[in-house]
Structures are given as C-alpha cells and as structure tokens.
Amino acid sequence: MTRELATDLPVWAAPMAGGPSTVGLVIAAARAGGLGFLAGGYKTPDALAAQLTEVRASGVAYGVNLFAPNPIAIKQLDYLAYARVLQPEADRYGIALGDEPRNTDDDAWNAKLELLLEARVPVVSFTFGLPDADAVRALQTVGSVVAQTVTTPGEAVAAAELGADLLIVQAPAAGGHSATFTPEQVQEAVGLPDLISTVRDVVALPIIAAGGIASSGDSAAAINAGARTVMVGTALLRTHESGASEPHKAALIDPRFGETALTKAFTGRPARGLRNYFIDRYEGSAPLGYPAIHHLTSPLRKAATAANDTTLIHLWAGTGYRAAQAEPAATTLKRLAPS
C-alpha cells in the first residue's frame, strides 16, 4: 500500500459518526473498488474494537476516523442558560438535562489511538483538529496512511507540516460537522473545486475531496480541479448498508425539508443538517461549546428519534441530499464516479 493509497474506484465512503457508518457500509465501499471508513467518534473503545475485528475479518482495505481533541470550553452559566431554554422540549419527553458541562471529554482519545496502533489500521483520518506529531509518526511507523481533514489552505499547510500523507479537503456544502480547526469563525462560502485549487496552490499532498458531491459531474469537477478521489457521505445515508435512523432517511426525501443550514444548536459546533424546527427555534440561543452542548442535547435527540419526531432531530445532510437513494451502497458509489 502506497502513501497515496490509489483505489480502482475514485469514490470513497466518508466516516459518519453516530450510526450511519456501519461495518457493512465500509465493506461494501471496498468491494466496489473504493474505500470506506469506520467512524470512531462517539464510540467507546470496546465498540470500536468490535467493529475493527469484524471489518478486518472481511479482508478488505479500510480506514478509521477519529475526532482529534479540539474542545470549545463553555462557561457553566452559559451552559445552564441554554439548558433552561431547552427544558420545555425536554419536558415533553420527561428528560432532565445535565447541569454540569462536560468540557474535558476527549472521546477516549488515548485508548482509541492505542487501539489503532495495535490494529495497524491501513488508513487513519483525523477531524476537528490536528493530532500531535508523535501520534502521526507512530501510526506511520506501524504502516498506517495518515489523512487529515482540512477546510482551508492554512489548515492544509499545518497538516503538511505535521507530516500527514493525505488531505481530505472538505467544502462547506458537506453534511454533518464541519472539520474546521476554528469553529468560532464563520466559514467562507466556497465551492469544492475552488477550495481544491487554493489548497493545491500551497500544498503538494494528494487530495481527497469532500462536500456536496451529488453527481458524477460533481466528482469530475473535483478531480479536474486536482483531487485524486472524492469522498461522499450524505449520498450514502439511504443506502441498504447505512445505519442512519429511519426518521433521518425519511426526512431526506420529505418535501417538508427544503434546505440545509449550518447550526451549532445541537452540539455547540458548526454542522450542516436539514433545516427544521430545532434549528429555527434555538440557533439564535445556542452557544459554542463542544462537546458539552453535544452531551446536553443528546438525550433529547435520542428520545425524539425514538418517537419519530423530526422537529428535534439532528438531520445531518449536505446540500446535495436529494441525491441520496435507497439502493446498495456500491450502486451509489459507482453512480457518482466521474464518467
């Protein structure tokens, strides 16, 4: 395996934390000729280890994504103020919201990193920030290709200086959390091909392009701009192998959801999802504060999902969400390949 990690199909399956990225989806992406990623974010080390064992047994190449620690601390007064605003929604489900912000939760970073080193994972990608240089070197020493997700040319330079092998260049059109290193700053509206071009001007590393890929034409435009391959997430949410919730899948084709929006209301970190009541009602009140706000709203979101209440669910989706179809993941990935 080379550091550039060439695949037969230039369309990869992005890691989607919280359930959508299943072992079946990762295996399907590899068998289609591409590459899939287990989403290590939010999982316990034991749960991630179980998935690693399963995907390794299949014999396919695969990747794993981790959230690099980059917390946004929130003051307790601001946290409690937001909790009070949300309490009427929680009351509908009999939920008591937490009264102490979990500012120091690092998503079991050290334990997960050790797990990946032991497993000698073929590809390891990082999101939300940079790992330390020792972690990168340790992974490369055991044979892992290290990919860093970036959203600006400046972040790309920092990733290259750290020693990353690949860049995953994410445009603002992407669904779910932005990988930005600076979530307190408003993201510049830039198309994926233009973002790829500006990153290529400053860094020579191979690029995997992500964000808003909804057609073979989108893939071709990204590759023509200089990407080696593209990575898709939202387009896979309705596939047979997706672990997305049924309310989430249904919302992607529901005409009541006509657009996406960036919001910090669910997790305290900017993320793109289908615009719904929760975003409209609470975005103006929501403070930055990740992962504290994620933990605050998590019980409410889980209860709403169980009740099929899409007004309160984080319906993560990129701008090309209408391209998501109920079909095998391999069909989606091949359909999005540049012709």
UniProtKB/TrEMBL annotation:
Q: Name one GO molecular function term.
A: dioxygenase activity
Print the keywords alphabetically.
Detoxification, Dioxygenase, Flavoprotein, FMN, Monooxygenase, Oxidoreductase
Q: Which CDD domains match?
A: NPD_like
Which GO biological process categories is it annotated with?
response to toxic substance
Cofactors demanded by this protein: FMN
**Highest taxon of the lineage:** Bacteria
The answer to keyword Transmembrane applying to this record is no
Q: Gene3D superfamilies under this entry?
A: Aldolase class I
Pfam family for this entry, one: NMO
Recorded catalytic reaction(s): these are: 3 propionate 3-nitronate + 3 O2 + H2O = 3 3-oxopropanoate + 2 nitrate + nitrite + H2O2 + 3 H(+)
Please name the PANTHER family in this protein's record.
Answer: NITRONATE MONOOXYGENASE-RELATED
What's this protein's family per the entry?
A: Belongs to the nitronate monooxygenase family. NMO class I subfamily.
Protein known as: Propionate 3-nitronate monooxygenase
Q: What is the organism of origin for this protein?
A: Kribbella solani
